[in-house]
Design a protein that fits this description.
This protein has 230 residues and is an alpha+beta fold. It has 4 helices and 11 strands, in the order H-E-E-E-E-E-E-H-H-E-H-E-E-E-E. Strands 6-5-4-3-2-1-11-10-9-8-7 form an 11-stranded antiparallel β-sheet. A hairpin with a 5-residue loop joins strand 3 and strand 4. The chain is globular and about 45 Å long. The N and C termini lie far apart (99 Å).
């Protein structure tokens, strides 16, 4: 009886502190839980995106690119088409008489302008080319390996002129510090988990906005497409 009474007296003394503890715990949970839930949601989205691109042996699309060039203080708009195939093969054609073209078989990269005989050839195995840039050009690569993925910063999101409101958005920051890419903000279709809109900001302080259309997966693209020929 003495022992029970001692416990009750201790609880009565502790009750005010317990109330404060419960109140503080509740406030802490209100602050932490939404972030924890967001983190789980982002992790699930990244997992679905990764699985989608892992199943894609090839990918084709058309695009519109709007780039704000800081040096010129104006926006430049271009249209084009792109095709990707594993491992690391891609073709990107910009429309127009002097449109730039990129062709890669995964080992070499050819760059040339339409109507021009001059061509630049780069060995992709050489140092100096950020691996996350190659994985991006090759169809996103491994998101979790090459990028830090998180929810888009609200202030940044407010400055971006998105064209598709129904997408799920993620912010990607390259893990390689020597990368020329500062960040990517990508919008993914919540049903297909394919990227349909993207913003890319680089070290030159140029912001490029891409809108992708006519996206097709696993068409069985021939390897010949990814070899340079004139």
């Amino acid at each position: 009886m003495f022992f029970t009474g001692a416990i009750l007296r201790s609880l009565r003394k502790f009750r005010p502190n317990m109330k404060r503890f419960i109140k503080n715990l509740f406030i802490t949970l209100l602050i932490i839980f939404p972030h924890f839930a967001d983190a789980l949601e982002i992790a699930g989205l990244v997992e679905q995106i990764q699985k989608t691109y892992e199943k894609a042996d090839d990918l084709s699309m058309s695009f519109v690119q709007k780039t704000y060039v800081a040096l010129l203080e104006r926006e430049v708009q271009k249209k084009g088409e792109a095709q990707f195939k594993k491992p690391g093969k891609f073709v990107i054609h910009y429309a127009g008489g002097r449109g730039r073209n990129y062709v890669s078989n995964g080992k070499k990269l050819w760059i040339y302008e339409s109507g021009d005989q001059a061509v630049s050839v780069t060995d992709l195995s050489q140092e100096g080319i950020p691996p996350e840039a190659l994985s991006f050009l090759g169809g996103l690569g491994n998101l979790k390996k090459d990028f830090a993925v998180e929810e888009v910063d609200p202030k940044k999101a407010g400055t971006l002129k998105k064209e598709k409101s129904s997408l799920e958005w993620l912010e990607l920051t390259p893990k390689q510090k020597r990368s020329s890419i500062r960040w990517l903000v990508m919008g993914f279709n919540p049903k297909t988990y394919l990227v349909e809109e993207m913003f890319l900001y680089n070290d030159s302080e140029n912001l490029s906005h891409y809108v992708f259309d006519k996206i097709m997966v696993n068409q069985g693209l021939s390897d010949k497409i990814f070899e340079y020929s004139r």
